[in-house]
Amino acid sequence: MNDALRTAFAAVHGGRPEGIWAAPGRVNLIGEHTDYNDGFALPVALAQTTRLAARRRTDGRLRLHSAQAGGPVVDLAVADLAPGAVTTWAAYPAGVVWALGEAGHRTGGADLHFDSTVPTGAGLSSSAALECAVARAYDDLYGLGLGPPALARIAQRAENAFAGVPCGVMDQMASSCCVAGAALHLDVRAGSHEHVPFDPEAAGLRLLVIDTRVTHDLGDGAYAALRTGCERACALLGLAALRDLSPEHLPRAERLLPARLRPLVRHVVTENARVAEAVAHLKAGRVAELGPILNSAHASLRDDYRVSCPETDLAVDSAVAAGALGARITGGGFGGSVIALVAADRAERMGAAVTAAFRGAGYREPHLIAVTAAPGARRIE
Ligand code: GLA
After folding, report:
1. Cα 203 to ligand 1 centroid, rounded to whole Å
2. Phi-psi region of 147 (alpha: psi -120 to 50; beta: other; left: phi over 0)
3. Which of the chain's termini has less CB crowding within 10 Å, N or C?
4. Which domains are assigned to the chain?
5. 3-state helix, strand, coil in the chain (%, to 5)
6. What separation in Å is there between the alpha carbon of 333 and the centre of ligand 1?
7. Cα(33) to centroid of ligand 1, in Å?
8. In testing the pocket of ligand 1, which one of 29, 125, 159, 170 has its CB within 8 Å of the most ligand atoms?
9. Candidate of 27, 153, 167 to mutate for ligand 1, largest count of ligand atoms within 8 Å of Cβ
10. How big is the CA angle at 369 (ends 22 and 28), to the nearest 5 degrees?
């Protein structure tokens, strides 16, 4: 596989790369729309990765090419990189080089060629995979010594300020910091993380991603509006972040808020509690107990946070009807993917039932991906 990447690098840039790096996409087990509320999340890195063949340049040019995007090489001067200057896919990798410079790190140009197996537009963080691959490659090539959490923050800065996407830090932390066989328990305010063993196979279970292959256009603006709603609720409640509201104080807080903000706050507070519950179950080896937690998270995302859509609801409902222990929409929402936890011997039947339900509804056929908890960004050659 890496030979093909080297051949493609040679065809695009000439010569040989100095090395090959890989960074994964992610699914989030639980803890959705909590990261920008200073809260908790529990993502898992996927085996699907963006691979990057890279070589430093001494002339300050950043030359980018992707097997998926195709087209000519995107040729940029590192010194000219500025937010808004790049508007295509290249904004994600170029943004990382810009963010490193903004943070005071001395780097330079590079020839980069990407090839990815992370589905795009599926809510599986293909953009974080691109960013984290570049961050990791630059860390190695330019000897920055930053390490995974700092690289994740650089990647988030690239996405927020350079590509203009107001995301939290979960996706970049997952792509950068995960280790094989574990989910990443994030405490965003503390800036800390813990690896929690996650091995559904050992418990006779499967975690499946159901990529519904729909993205609804309202996604970007709607995500920003949800963030603003949470900030407004904090201002009204006199809190630094919704992380500071405990479930016992929720009823009182709801009485103080206008009706439109109550469900947002309810989701974030109950979702943070669900992360704690899920982590306790995983640490005790009770993987199947995640099922009911996934179901309540989906109800909360559908009814309170309102980020589901007919396709993701059908994926959840048909998975549960076919025997899944639990299922929910994962990622930012408004389409994208659903995760379903199911007994290994029922997984195939469940997948077939979901596919049949989609066909019956006249939707595109969903893509099914089995999740094994994979490692974060790394050098592979
Ligand atoms: C997107 C963002 C993340 C996070 C999720 C929702 O994936 O990039 O930072 O906010 O949505 O949990």
Report:
1. 28
2. left
3. N
4. 2-197 (3.30.230.10), 200-370 (3.30.70.890)
5. 45, 25, 30
6. 9
7. 6
8. 170
9. 167
10. 70
